[in-house]
Amino acid sequence: MTMLDDSAATAETWPTAYPEGYAVVDVETTGLARDDRIVSAAVYRLDARGEVEDQWYTLVNPERDPGPVWIHGLTREVLAGAPLFAEIADAFAERLADRVLVAHNALFDWSMIAREYARAGRTAPVSRRLCTIALAKELSLPLPNHKLESLAAHFGVVQQRAHHALDDARVLAEAFRPSLRAAARDGVRLPLLECRPLTEWSDSPAGGPRIGHQPSYGHRPPGAVSYGSYGSWRPSRKRPACPHPNPGRYVAGQPLKQGMRVAFSGDTSVDRELLEDRAFDAGLHIASSVSRLTSLLVTNDPDSVTSKAAKARAFGTPVLDEAAFTQLLRDVAPADGPAGPGTAPSGGAVG
């Protein structure tokens, strides 16, 4: 267990760039897919130093089968009388507003919350998020894995009801406080990422979400949801094969080139599916794994223990962060020879 003296981060040493408040969140859901729903949500509001201000918990009627009851314990009968998400949206928003959303695997919780607000015709009041897995990596905590129970055990926090939103949020809040103070003491940057909320949602009679119009984005297949000026989200599907030959590895200082094989790893500010869409529309090949043929790995955490990052290090694959990659996407060089059918025009700009 790591003990941290309260004097470790005094008013004189506390980083001025750190946020003023946090909303530690946990949601339980009907599943892990993009069309799954929230069945319960909990928020612990913390001040700038990680001290608990208050807590909040609610059940949510998902208007569908509750999914893995054996995990979250919430049956159809229990949820039948619970409020709909639209009915708790204001109360939830009040606890998220003007705070950094903190969660364990924050991309998942944020994505579920953003979609629920979009279905309700609302925008979640969250501009930044912090993943406690990423913070644990920044602090180089000696964890056997990145499960919440391992983070809790490291700081001596006792779990009482795993997969109950309120208790998971409590556990995370209690583990986040010493993590935050350790980061402040050692001058560690917080792994904050921007949140890009969904702004439109409509249910399609054919099943799945329908698209919002975004002329600057380029071609857009049925089944998408607008992501503001950044394009759309849609259910996963198999993309057509990239028609361009692989020109080889990315070279620093040079533009991307159509046909390059690009892999993605880790959390990103922009939805992963959207980044992949933008890369595909620019004429790049989206690789599901890293091999010796991969031209580039895009990740905000190059030192992570993911298989993609490890293979990139082993193969010497070039690595770029999300911001640099997004900038390069503005002007992708055309492939050698004529472009194949259905590809982006020369230059590959996608907005």
In short:
The protein has helices at residues 69-72, 76-80, 85-96, 106-119, 132-138, 148-154, 165-186, 272-281, 307-315, 322-328; strands at 21-29, 38-47, 52-59, 100-103, 128-131, 192-194, 225-226, 232-233, 261-265, 285-286, 296-299, 319-320. The chain is α/β, with parallel strands linked by helices. The longest helix has 22 residues, at 165-186.
Which key terms come to mind for this protein?
single chain; 351 residues; alpha/beta; six-stranded mixed beta sheet; four-stranded parallel beta sheet; disordered N terminus; disordered C terminus
Summarize the structure in words.
Helix content is 28%, strand content 16%. It is of the alpha/beta class and 351 residues long. The strands form 3 sheets. The chain has a 6-stranded mixed sheet, with helices on both faces. The radius of gyration is 21 Å and the shape is globular. The N and C termini lie far apart (48 Å).
Topology at a glance:
Layout: E1 21-29, E2 38-47, E3 52-59, H1 69-72, H2 76-80, H3 85-96, E4 100-103, H4 106-119, E5 128-131, H5 132-138, H6 148-154, H7 165-186, E6 192-194, E7 225-226, E8 232-233, E9 261-265, H8 272-281, E10 285-286, E11 296-299, H9 307-315, E12 319-320, H10 322-328
Parallel strand pairs: 1-4, 4-5, 9-10, 9-11, 11-12
Antiparallel strand pairs: 1-2, 2-3, 5-6, 7-8
Helix pairs in contact: 5-7, 6-7
